[in-house]
Amino acid sequence: MPFRPNAAPRRVWPVVVWYILAAALLACAVAASLAYGALNLNPSRALGLLLRPDDSSDSLVVWSLRFPRTVAAMLAGAGLAVSGALLQGVTRNPLADPGILGVEAGAALAMLIGIVFLPNLGVWGVPLAFAGGLAAAGLTLAFASRVGLTPVRLALSGVAVAALCSALTRAVQLLFEERAQGALFALSGSVAGRTWEQVGQAAPWLLAALVLALLSARRVNVLALGEDVARGLGVNTRRDLLLVSVLGVLLAASAVSLVGPIGYVGLIVPHLTRTLLGTDHRLTLPLTALLGAALVVLADIAARLIDRPAETPVGLLIAALGTPFFIWLARRQKG
């Protein structure tokens, strides 16, 4: 649907009902994620082992393999979805998305360079990905604004920057093939094999950025009205625009550092939540986080079951859903 900052909310059901449904969907997705895979468990048994672990092999599967990857999927999904909502709000562009704007590709390139030349990144992986994502976003905006900033020009500039970053990523992989092997798993666009150590490195950044994003919802509402209106309301637009944009990039970069680039989550989910609750970010951002987390967890379950025991990359499955959605959305944009 076209992005209309002043559109009236479409509230078919009370807001609380949508929150309850989203939370229930996420809870069911988590239970299924713990239960199903190469080895299927009864969901009640999986939840029982989560609450009361024992020495069985099933308990090891739940706690060491499935629970950390489920938490990683939830964090990444929430981060990418909220990132897309923030970027769409401050740019007033329905095509804005951390993947389409090149943020994910820039973060992935920075991560690869770090892994190749600084093998023991540890907790510095997220700041490095953030720097790469921020540079890519700045390059996209610079290209798009040279001839007049419009939604389609911004999207096309982002696609070009993403292609450039992907080409550089491939070049580094070819030139430093042996050292780049360690990055293939980290940047695969999948949550398979994620460990508690990896979750622990990215979780503080993601959770802090999510909290700050929720606290910034009112700022996003004002910025979505346009710079002139925001200034008329006494808002420091440059400061708020920088703050919200940095939060959006940080959320996307943190997610990339954890699961690799997974596109379209930040495009699909914010449009869905605006359809359900309108354009008030104070209402939509929490719902966006819940639905984004549920989407990636459900995609991860499908990735395990489609070609079991082999796994399909999560990013591929979401791209199969997101690409037609992006084309439909782009065709609806005027000018």
SSE inventory with pairings:
Elements: H1 15-35, H2 43-51, H3 57-91, H4 103-117, H5 125-145, H6 151-175, H7 177-186, H8 196-215, H9 217-223, H10 227-232, H11 237-259, H12 265-277, H13 281-305, H14 314-332
What attributes characterize this protein structure?
335 residues, 74% helix, mainly alpha, 14 helices, ABC transporter involved in vitamin B12 uptake, BtuC, ABC_BtuC-like
Written overview of the protein:
- The chain has about 325 residues and is mainly alpha-helical.
- Helix content is about 75%, strand content about 0%.
- The protein has 14 helices and no strands.
- The protein has helices at about 15-35, 45-50, 55-90, 105-115, 125-145, 150-175, 175-185, 195-215, 215-225, 225-230, 235-260, 265-275, 280-305, 315-330.
- The longest helix has about 35 residues, at about 55-90.
- The two termini are about 15 Å apart.
